[in-house]
Amino acid sequence: MKTTTCLSLLVLAGCIPLHAAAQQKTTAEGIAEYRALLQDGNPAELFEARGEDLWKQKRGPKAASMEKCDLGKGPGVVKGAFAELPRYFSDTGRVQDMESRLLTCMETLQGFDAAAIAKTPFGTGEQKNIEGLVAWISAESKGMPLNLPQSHASERRAYEVGKRLFFMRAGPHDFACATCHGADGKRIRLQDLPNLTKNPGAGEGFGAWPAYRVSSGELWGMQRRLNDCFRQQRFPYPGYASDVTVALAVYMGVNGKGGKTTAPAIKR
Amino acid sequence: MRIRAQASGDKTTVRILMAHEMETGQRKDAAGKTIPAWFIQEVTASLNGKTVLTADWGPAVSKNPFMQFTLKGAKAGDKIAVTWKDNRGETRTDEATVS
């Protein structure tokens, strides 16, 4: 009689944590499953196709294509460029991410006004074209390990600046990026948040943007992602392709070194 | 449109990604004015010119829709053509080869 009670107790004890673990997994797994289902028909592909055309098209006041644009691996080299951005560019003397670099190329090669494009609202005018370009350029590096250079002093400084910004608490909610993205296992509603201070979180998080957002039917680049993070914290908008956004990208990208890029990914 | 058609045995999987706004007609813009409905109403797919699928769509289908179906009897090299027609009367046709 005694033995039976013991046994059933043991079984119960063994059952409870197992059940809880299984339930917790289902939430994250459910989202992963949802993404996998959509991955097959990721509409980011439509943006990629447009981006490739835009890259080769002669546009702008100078009627030139982007094919001579140097994304860090030499003029016109697109493959693998995304996995090494942001990086230092000697011609501009700045650390630049993909979007900031595209603005430089659009200005120098095609004759567009970069400052005017930076002020254009997301998803309209030339910003819409940048969405296509970032989708295509990132897709050309799909599956490659993130490998941001840190050899130049400016790149190392950008990392330190990015780190300070990441942990800087401010705004009406006294938030920092680190409030949500500085520890493992945090989430907003059902969404698991990556820990951007180390791998695999930083690689998975940083390497997944640009991404197609199903909820809005739009393609978001890293600049728009960061803008929304700032908006949710009730911070002032840091400005498109500004040093602040680039420094944060360097911080996340370097932390994610070795993580494989999945961009353009698909998000809810 | 991006169309991929892959044959495996006697079954061919056709996957189609379409670029379309798919406005429901129930949303309002920033000024409070209703955004007019604009959506795909009819999708047809044909194999070597013979219609194999017709679908009636409405405003409930998502923006940039993705459609997938399996087809019997298609061989590598066959032509798959997909046409959509929206409620404004605009239409688009794209073709792909079965691989």
What are the key terms here?
heterodimer; A: about 270 residues; mainly alpha; three-stranded mixed sheet; two-stranded antiparallel ribbon; 10 helices; about 50% helix; about 5% strand; globular; disordered N terminus; B: about 100 residues; mainly beta; four-stranded antiparallel sheet; three-stranded antiparallel sheet; about 0% helix; about 50% strand; elongated
Secondary-structure-based class of chain B equals mainly beta
With strands numbered from the N-terminus, the spatial order across the biggest sheet of chain B is 4-3-6-7
Major sheet of chain A: order of its strands?
Answer: 6-5-7
Q: Report Rg of chain B.
A: 16 Å
Low-pLDDT ranges of chain A? 1-22
Separation of termini of chain B? 17 Å
Which word captures the global form of chain B?
elongated
State the major sheet of chain B. Answer: 4 strands, antiparallel
Give the uncertain stretches of chain B in residue-range form: none
User: Count of helical segments of chain B?
Assistant: 0
By helix and strand content of chain A, what is the structural category?
A: mainly alpha
SSE succession of chain B: EEEEEEE
In terms of DSSP E residues, the strand content of chain A is 5-15%
| Average of the residue pLDDT scores of chain B | 92
